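Appendix B. Extra example for self-study. Work through it before the problem class; the solution is given directly after the inputs so you can check yourself.
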Amino acid sequence: MTDKSYYSQLRRSIIGIIVAVSLTPLLVLAALGGYQFHSAYKQKVLAHMEQLVYGHQQSIDAFLSGKLAEIRVLTDVAGFDKVRDDAGLAQLLQSLQSRYDGVFVDLGLVNAQGTQVAYSGPFRLGRADYAHALWFQETMQREYYISDVFLGLRGLPHFIVGVKHSWHGQEYILRSTIDFVAFNRLVENVRIGETGLAYIVSRGGEFQTKPRRDVAMTAEFLNDVLTPEQDLRTHRFGQSQPHVHLGKDPATGEDTVFVTASLKNGDWLLVLQQSQDDAFRLFLRARNFALVGIIISTLAIVFMAFVLSKRILNTVVETDQQKEMMNEQVIEAGKLASLGELAAGIAHEINNPVAIMVEEAGWIQDLMEEEDLRASKEADEVLRALSQIRTQGGRCKEITHKLLSFARKIDPTMKRVHINELIEEMAALSEQRARFANVHIATDLADTLPPIEASPSELQQVFLNLINNAIDAMDHHEGGQLKITTRVENHQAVISVADTGQGIPKANLQKIFDPFFTTKPVGKGTGLGLSICYGIIQKMGGEISVSSVLDVGTTFHIRLPLRSAEGEGRSAS
Amino acid sequence: MSVATVLLVDDEQAFVEAMTKRLARRDVEVRAASGGQECLDALAKDASVEVVVLDVKMPGIDGVETLKRIKADYPLVEVIMLTGHATVETAIDGMKLGAFDYLMKPCDMDVLMEKIDAAATKKRQHEEKILEARAQSIAMRRGD
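Solution. Structure tokens for the complete assembly:
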């Protein structure tokens, strides 16, 4: 349970670290970049709109002052007799219209009392009385004047340019109507995006041009919102730079950009408005794109964090398990080692008392040879008992000697070992014993067998044990054949020790490498030989196996890895 | 005449006693010592010792060390090693150092007797040869 919670905690922290480390720079970058891009883009868009408005402000003002100047030139140049009657005016109007593309709709001369004394134009205005018209009063006061757009007597939107001039001591006003359509065209064509539109309003909140769509515009909105710092009431004649205002459009309720500039010395206001969604469309699109990208990256990072943490955790778990197994093996090896020491100690301690017992028994045997004791009735029985004591003493000796050799620290130093030589040596060592048992030892050793790194004394022990076992397995009267072969197979040295003995029953095959398992008569074997061999071969990274057929023979196979010595070549020997 | 004069060296008192009795019964003159130093002292006092039966594992000066000193000081005295271990290495070491033979404890009395006999015979032959050689050299000198 603690393991599980430890691992899940480990995994959580791995995920946390991966996500935090990956996401933090991503988000910081996105936020900073987004902000920078946003402000730069916004600035650019607004600057563009300002530029647009400024240009139009200039051209509209130029248009208006141009028209005014043309009428003033007319008053300066034309003689009174030219403007005094309709025919003269008609001549002038025709000239103006042909030169200025019909911007001037009509011309009229109004005397100081407000009565139109001459007129030329499409409307039959005749002797119209303008005494109460605002433009008349303003022109009389200011010499020249451009009126707001109004419906006037003719019932059509138009505006008037009036210039006061005196002919023959009498003051007259020469006025002209400017074609609203032509003027409207100046701003109507200002289009930005889908929602952008431009229009001109007077300081009274009246439209001087016709917006492309309805715009709810009030004087209050103009004064309070659009031009707080160029208040029309206080800065009537102020000439100002375009002004940007971000706010809600009262008509649609949308967030809108308003860019305003004053015209006609502050009488009019040029307004360019565009909804923010439209104006910043590209930015919003880029932002959405970035957001989608960030979400996808985040998902990918989280997914990766999960996958990666799973992988790391698996490795950690595996490593931990291996470590635990190693620990167990080390403990096991330690136990075995201390068990071996203990066994050696006990064997040694027991050996001396056994030796004394055997000697004492021998002494009694010696004494039994005395005449008087020999004559005793039970003398034979005593001698039998004594010989039994000596036999069992010998058995004890056998066991302690085997135990000592089992626990003994065999010289484990690794040397370059020629297996073939070692086998020849061991075979020669066993020759004497084999001869007594009528066993013929034959060897078939592969010359190609390279030397391996191993402990020679350990390998000697293995081979000698196998040879001894093989000799014991064969009937002493019939004898048999003991064949030792070596060969190289799949980067392994394969050593086979085959005998023609009685074979091993299937039931015993499983147990032959177990310690203390023996089929030899009591007192003849300790059951440690093969288990020692097994331990040594295992330690060397090899394997030992056995195949046996009853009454035909038994073969032991040892496989030892060759790779440890292969790469070093002969230079190391 | 006794078979041989033997010095038995072992730290186990009971073993020494039993062996002494058994060997004495077989006409062996037995001296006893319970350690390496005692063994060397006994050899120094008693020149009649022909064979030393020496336990390998003893406190103080151990068997191998004692063997070295015996061979250094009394090269003609034969030594039979008695070992409790089955360590062939110890036996080989002993043989290399000049021991006559080695036996594993507990040992068969007959085998031991054979070895003692052989060792004593060898020693006597050595001595005889030395005496002969000496006599010859003296004779040659006289004849010169």
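Self-check: Residues 182-281 of chain A form a domain with the Beta-Lactamase fold (CATH 3.30.450.20). If your reasoning did not lead you there, revisit section 3.
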